[in-house]
Structure formats: C-alpha cells, structure tokens
Amino acid sequence: MALADGHLPVLPLGADKRPLGNCRDCTDLVCGGRSNMKTPGPCVCPWPCHGWAAATTNPSVLASRQWGLAWRQARAIGYHPGGANVTVVDLDNADAVDWARATLPPTTTVATTRGEHWIYSGTVRSVNKVREGVDIKSLMSYARWLGPGTGTMTDVPTAVHALVEEKPVARPAPRAVPVTAPAGGGQCPHRSPVYLERGIAMAEQRITAATSGVHATVYATFLAVLSAHGRCGCLTDAHIGRLFLAAQAKGESPRHCTDAWSNATTALGI
Fold it and tell me: What secondary structure does DSSP assign to 224-237, as a single string?
C-alpha cells in the first residue's frame, strides 16, 4: 500500500517471480495466463487479472477479496515500470554490470540476486536480451521491487534508446485461424454491403494504426465490429479473417486473436 501511495503500480509475484492470478479462477495461472491483456480474461474479472496490465495503485483493488488469495501466496512484489514512468535496465550478471558502468550514465541502482537494476526516468519499449545479460523493462512489462536503491535517478540515456531501436519487433507471420461467424437472427440494419465493407476497412485501419496498447486496441475493435454486425448475420468468416490477419501483422498471436474474439462475443452475449 505504501508503494501504491507513492504512485508505483504494484502486483503480486510468486516464488518463481511470475505474476500470480489475482482471483480464485486464475490460481496457478490455470487460465493459461491469458488474462494479462487489457481485456477481461476467461475468469471474467472486472479488471485485468494478472501480469503487467493488472499492476495498480488503486487501494480498493489491492485490498479486494479477489486479490486477497494472491497476496497471501505472494513471495515478492512486482511493479509496472512504464506505469511509474521509469525504465529498468536489468543487468543479469557481473559482465553486464561492468558493461553498464563503462557505457551508461550513473542513475538509481538496486542490487539483485545476480546483478543490478539500473533505473532511469522515462519510458521505452521493453525488449529482452538487447545484449548478453541485459533486458530492458519499461512499457508492457514488470519488474521485481527490490527496494528504493541508491543514487540519483537520471533520464533514459541515448545508449538505451539505441539498444531498443536496434532490436526489431518480432512479427509472427500471419496465418489463417478458423473462427465461425456468429449466427444471424436479428434484424439487419445495413442498407447495402458497402456499409459493412466500410466498417471492416475502418476496423483494419484502426488495428494497423495502433502504436501502443495493441492488445487493448484489438479487443476494442473486435467488440465494436461485433456490436454493429455480430447479430444480424452479415458478418462472414472472410471478414473475421481480415481482422485476424491485421492483428497478427501487429504482432498478436493467433491465440490472442481467438481469445480477444471469444471475450468480445461473451461480453456482448452473442
């Protein structure tokens, strides 16, 4: 609670340093870890259930019954660096620490079990293994809280920006995913196929234009498409395939696509 009061979004971690499911349905991540999106997961929690997206400063959420089981089992506290507007350079061994001391400007440092965390002000894209023993944890990531550290925090240096930019974003090759369109039955409000085509094209563009929060954008887009076209029978498998391919081109896995689609249909009662 003290960390949350200090504007640090926190979440419970297990002994293996992984986020814990924050409700009984997600104990031991039996849900498959899918509720870490910024969308309701299979446990139908009213908020993201675990992972970096669940990190919060809200005292009501942190003290809720849903999170109580996870906090009782927690063996460490995690936090979302990006949510606190910081970047953690995770140095995993002595060689990585020596590299940082020779390359990066001094900042707040925290000792870890195998190396150090160097914490800078500002956010960047999170990337693992930017070099041997070095991970960058900031946006859409989490880190262990190991204390306030020592030293004065400085801005994210140019060298860290360069490491992140040099590492290409992994884009899995899009592939077809079989999903059946919802059965019709409602009254069709569309006066011509042009209306539906325009809606699908706008949805593809919305996903393609996302520069951050891709999970949330994909889910919101699926929800909007289903809200407009999911009940009357106009939506076809081909339309769904176009949306899935657009999402996969932004880095979403086929599983995340099917999860987001399933969550959207469940939320709308389709």
Answer: HHHHHHSSSS---H
* Residue 42 token pair: 């299979």
Q: How far, in Å, CA of 63 to CA of 269, rounded?
A: 30
What type of residue is 232?
C
The answer to whether residue 36 scores a pLDDT higher than 50 is no
SS (H, E, C) 10-60: EEEECCCCCECCCCHHHHHHCCCCHHHCCCCCCCCCCCCCCCHHHCECCHH
Over the chain, what is the mean pLDDT? 82
Q: Are 15 and 74 in contact (CB under 8 A)?
A: no
Name the pTM for this structure. 0.61
Whats the size of the chain, residue-wise? 270
Specify the DSSP class assigned to residue 70. Answer: H
Q: What is the CA 164 to chain-centroid distance, rounded? A: 18
Q: Which residues make Cβ contacts (< 8 Å) with residue 193, sequence separation at least 6?
A: none
